[in-house]
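Subject: Interface between my chains keeps coming out wrong

I've been trying for a while to get a sensible model of this assembly. When I model each chain on its own everything looks fine, but I need the whole thing in one frame so I can look at the contacts. Pasting all components below, labels as-is. Any help appreciated, I'm running out of ideas.
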Amino acid sequence: MKEILHELESRREAARMGGGQRRIDAQHGKGKLTARERVELLLDEGSFEEFDMFVAHRCADFGMEKDRTAGDGVVTGWGTINGRMVYVFSQDFTVFGGSLSETHAQKICKIMDMAMQNGAPVIGINDSGGARIQEGVASLAGYAEVFQRNIMASGVVPQISVIMGPCAGGAVYSPAMTDFIFMVKDSSYMFVTGPDVVKTVTNEVVTAEELGGASTHTKKSSVADAAFDNDVETLSEVRRLVDFLPLNNRSKVPVRPFFDDPGRLDSSLDTLVPNNANTPYDMHELIKKLADEGDFYEIQAEFAKNIVTGFVRLEGSTVGVVANQPMVLAGCLDIDSSRKAARFVRFCDAFEIPILTLVDVPGFLPGTAQEYGGVIKHGAKLLFAYGEATVPKVTVITRKAYGGAYDVMASKHLRGDFNYAWPSAEIAVMGAKGATEILYRSELGDAEKIAARTADYESRFANPFVAAERGFIDEVIAPHSTRKRVCRAFASLRGKALENPWKKHDNIPL
Ligand code: HXC
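Reply #2:
Try treating it as a single job with all components included. I did that and got this:
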């Protein structure tokens, strides 16, 4: 028995060494951790239970039968993050460059199947040269098996992708179908075709970093949700994100102990909105002042900054926040902000996370770029996402809510449960100046008359009371009491039951 135990330990030891010390050193030399070190950092200490440590590939071409490293380039298993279960796979770049073989794919599929069956998130750490070139179509089949599972798991268990090295070609489509993508600055990249192919086909000269690095994907393409300086920081941010998420679509949002009075009043909010309607203020300030302990986990902070999305906790329970940001493009809706917020709203709805919407929106951004880019279709995404969402929805209009954007931003008409407005709210078809210029076009030459008309329009419509008279606003609330009102509103909605009519699936304007 002793000998057998000894052999087990030496086999385990060999598997843990992956592609060997030389390649581990090379990985460290690039400032990257190994697959196992990443898993250890991601999960609670000592919680990792590994699967398939001894799985080896079955390829016998190109002399591959002589190199059958145990584990086949991916470490898989489950463990806990702050005591809550997650499944994980971590590609090992030291073994055939982390490339995906038939058996490598089978290992990933196994833990994805278990995650679905047992209702826990899947976290995939990607660091791979793509399809195992020696295996050909068997590798492509393996990718497609993973893709199919990404699709089936979507909306059932949260899926998080962490890009910590190369992720290229068709391999990008697995992360692309997951809920969140995190990247590491300067050591990860994602693209469908690399710089060499780009040069050949389009004659563009571009580096891998420019084409698909973290900056590109968090600021330009919006493929990635966040990027951090190194492996350690990235993995600790994944842990923070997981703390906000439910384990699956049938479990409730996690409730953490909280040390912030839900009835806390904040008098500084009474002066947050400037007297001049065109002066911006930072919506982050309001979000942080409403959140438990001021803790806000922002998603896509670097993209479409005219809308802010992320998670807070109220009375310890996760709430998704969508907020117009007056500091950027006056907080208007456009193609990018609509897409960003729509995806976030749909994630929240899929996983029963209540949504708080903070509104200060002057309307949709005008221009040919927007119209040619399909702002009609993209704006409709956000409208659609809010309208189909059945989770508790609480909305606070702080200032402007103009035109179609008023309807879109979780209005009463889209089944908002609590629609509050601050006394500074202006709910109208458009701003006073624009309105008078259309209504009184013939008087445009007379500045005095127009000023009087504008003042008249403002006094009649630039307030929340016309909407409140109709019941479109449930209550006009004092800014300083917003946290208390919002917490009470969500508390009252914990038993909310609302279902959409049966359908195979909807046809959201993609
Ligand atoms: C097998 C691979 C491999 C692959 C890398 N390796 N990629 N082995 N299949 N796809 C091996 C290398 O031979 C090398 O082995 C080790 O991994 C490390 O690779 P290096 O090239 O030394 O590392 P580096 O210089 O850091 O470059 C990394 C890289 C490069 C940029 C990823 O390796 C590369 O370009 N690989 C090929 C990428 C590719 O074209 N893949 C197929 C894409 S198509 P040794 O023994 O020397 O350590 C695709 C389709 C997916 O993925 C379709 C899904 C539908």
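Reply #3:
Confirming on my end. Residues 277 and 399 are 8 Å apart (CA to CA).
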